[in-house]
């Protein structure tokens, strides 16, 4: 097999972008799409020259001739859909987060064994985030005591009204922290390769008429004693650059995503490492990485189990925000 036939499940916002990006990944063929909204599935299929359409995911798993499924559906569907795909012997590329809750994530990892399930936390393949993470992992920055993450993004009520699952904890699991902030929190905990030990958090919902938080401030203490602080926001008046700052004993790494992804190392001469996949966009590299995992068994940067630490961090911040107390993670 030198091409991976992929089924896209959920033909909404991110699926459209992934479908465009897949044209830049030669080892991927989009052969099938599926959405409960038939009109959406049909227009998606037409736009992306996909020949087979389903409106029922179980039917797709039974009948479609594909090598893997890409799940781009609301968070509350991730657990069941991954389990069904694994049961049908299909590898899965699921959109972040792995599951809506940490408990679902833990149960899933227990259940899937060695099945290939990858998560699209594509910032691990972003050139700047990757270089920052490798500088931490290789020890080039020395012991890292502090990481500061700022995500000052902008959303409108239309964002929630257009895809109403984003509004509720039951369907989304939370707001800006799990949906947007977890991308960059994932980069930090992955870079450190340490479990979260405790969390303190504060969440609030200015501006929008929704249940989930639109602004979250949190602090994670890791097992190695590093403090990660994160501000994840949908309430900036205009979207500003994302920054990650990692402060080590030998040097500092300063990442920003705009005007293009970049990292600057200060205080130490550090060789910048490039992501292991080629491509102009992190999502392109992430999809390419997943395909090479399936086709050639090449290591993929984001297997499902490696994303449990970020779910643990997110869960800890939410638990603390509810109780007003520092939340200690069970070991
Ligand atoms: N990686 C990224 O940068 C990125 C960006 C945006 C969203 N996402 C993630 O992608 C996922 C989807 O988000 P979105 O913004 O595209 O949502 P969306 O609401 O735009 O699209 C979801 C689609 O799933 C369909 N759907 C719902 N139930 C279904 C079912 N049972 N079977 C088949 N289709 C079903 C809906 O009809 C809809 O078309 C989420 O996990 C989200 O966090 C990732």
At a glance:
With 331 residues, this protein is an alpha/beta fold.
Give a description of the structure.
This protein is of the alpha/beta class and about 325 residues long. The protein has two domains: about 5-120, NAD(P)-binding Rossmann-like Domain (Rossmann fold), CATH 3.40.50.720; about 125-270 and about 305-330, Dihydrodipicolinate Reductase, domain 2 (2-Layer Sandwich), CATH 3.30.360.10. Helices cover about 35% and strands about 25% of the residues. It has eleven helices and 14 strands. It has helices at about 15-20, 40-45, 55-65, 80-85, 100-110, 125-135, 155-160, 170, 175-190, 280-295, 310-325; strands spanning about 5-10, 30-35, 50-55, 70, 90-95, 115-120, 145-150, 195-205, 215-220, 225-235, 245-250, 250-255, 260-265, 325-330. It has an eight-stranded mixed beta sheet, with helices on one face. Strand 12 and strand 13 form a beta hairpin. Helix 4 packs parallel to helix 5, helix 6 (about 125-135) crosses helix 9 (about 175-190) and helix 9 crosses helix 11. The model has no long low-confidence stretch (mean pLDDT about 95). It binds nicotinamide-adenine-dinucleotide. The site of nicotinamide-adenine-dinucleotide (NAD) has 24 residues, from helix 1. Nicotinamide-adenine-dinucleotide binds next to helix 1.
């Amino acid at each position: 097999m030198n091409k991976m036939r992929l089924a896209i499940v959920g033909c909404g916002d991110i699926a459209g972008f992934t479908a465009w990006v897949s044209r830049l990944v030669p080892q991927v063929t989009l052969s099938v799409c599926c959405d409960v909204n038939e009109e959406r599935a049909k227009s998606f299929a037409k736009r992306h020259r996909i020949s087979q359409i389903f409106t029922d995911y179980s039917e797709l798993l039974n009948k479609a001739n594909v090598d893997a499924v890409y799940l781009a559906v609301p968070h509350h569907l991730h657990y069941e859909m991954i389990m069904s795909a694994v049961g049908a012997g299909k590898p899965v590329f699921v959109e972040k987060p792995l599951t809506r809750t940490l408990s679902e994530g833990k149960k899933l990892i227990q259940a899937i064994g060695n099945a290939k399930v990858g998560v699209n936390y594509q910032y691990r393949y972003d050139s700047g985030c990757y270089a920052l993470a490798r500088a931490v992992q290789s020890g080039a920055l020395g012991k890292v005591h502090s990481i500061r993450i700022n995500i000052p993004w902008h959303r409108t009520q239309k964002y929630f009204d257009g895809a109403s699952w984003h509004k509720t904890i039951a369907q989304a699991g939370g707001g800006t922290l799990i949906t947007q902030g977890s991308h960059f929190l994932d980069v930090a905990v992955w870079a450190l390769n340490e479990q979260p030990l405790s969390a303190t958090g504060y969440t609030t919902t200015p501006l929008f008429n929704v249940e989930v938080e639109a602004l979250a401030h949190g602090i994670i203490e890791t097992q190695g004693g590093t403090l990660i602080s994160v501000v994840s926001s949908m309430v900036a008046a205009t979207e500003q650059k994302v920054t990650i700052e990692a402060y080590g004993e030998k040097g500092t790494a300063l990442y920003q995503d705009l005007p293009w992804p970049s990292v600057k190392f200060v205080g130490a001469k550090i060789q910048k490492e490039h992501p292991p996949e080629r491509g102009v966009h992190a999502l392109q590299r992430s999809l390419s990485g997943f395909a090479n995992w399936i086709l050639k068994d090449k290591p993929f940067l984001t297997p499902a189990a490696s994303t449990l630490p970020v779910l643990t961090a997110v869960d800890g911040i939410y638990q603390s925000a509810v109780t007003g107390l520092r939340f200690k993670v069970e070991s």
